[in-house]
Predict the structure of Dockerin domain-containing protein.
Amino acid sequence: MKNTGNKFWAASLIWVLSLLIFCGFSYAIIWHPESEPTQEWIDRPADKLIGRWGTNGSCVPISPWHVVTTRHQGGSAGSTSIMIDGKQFGIVKIWNHPTADLRIARVDKRLSGYAQVYRKEDENGKNVVVAGYGDGRKDILSTDGYTYGYSWDNSTNSTLRFGTNLIEEITQTPKGAPLPSELVVIRFNDPDATDYECAIADHDSGGGWFIYEEDVWKLAALSRGVEHVGESLFRDAQRPKQWADPDFCHGVRLSQYVSWISGVLGGDLVEVDCDLNGDRLVDYSDWNHLQECWQRIDCDPVNGHCGGGDVDKDGCVDIIDVANFASQWLCETPAVS
């Protein structure tokens, strides 16, 4: 397997320069023309598990009230908003990891679904679905009629895209690099490497890399960096017919930050379980939602446990949930400090 040590140094230098010039650095999804996903592709995470962070990044819901993303694209509570599945959310509080390129944000309204974090440390060799908002493919790059890569289209970053890849390496940022992080690596190989082989590109930082486990898409990593800026290459630019030279893309490896993530979420349990609409009061509005969900048996993290109606999170909305609701009637949720 190709050693990426020297290339990571180059990528890190580009990353720092981009921060200084553009005040943000992030990525999106690039496919091969012959292997773009079709509209019928449903074997992937739901759209509501990926958000657009401000105007220059992506994020992933990981609880009914929290999203996770990378730090380097910036943003702040009170000024940055996110879009998830066509709905806008404000950010009321942010927790930055002490060293890594990782942050958690609390939103101002309850999210309709969220992803569980992949906790196992066996990511290497796993297939992933990669998702994010940002630039798509623009021009085909070729030498002597042989394609070696694609340039990025930076005209818009408002489209959610999904692709596939394979985790090929576990590594870390180079010594001395900013925001040192534990990483997983994918490579942009030839079109038939995976069903919808992809790379990440501009405005996808903070987007998710998902592993399918136990019938659930779990969040394994967040898009962070690429080998080349402005283009995604999969063969040698001078001799594309003879040599494959796939670009690497790296993501923040979340299995190494489970304790920190759990600590943030566990310390921010300020909502009352039955405050289903996020207005900090358990009242008739919440009761109406519970009635709408009555006897549903499809409740899971992806649909937010039926929008919170499945209070005890046992998969169905039943008399136990009604009892829990009654015990919290007119309870108020304290404001976020």
Observations:
- The chain is about 15% helix and 35% strand.
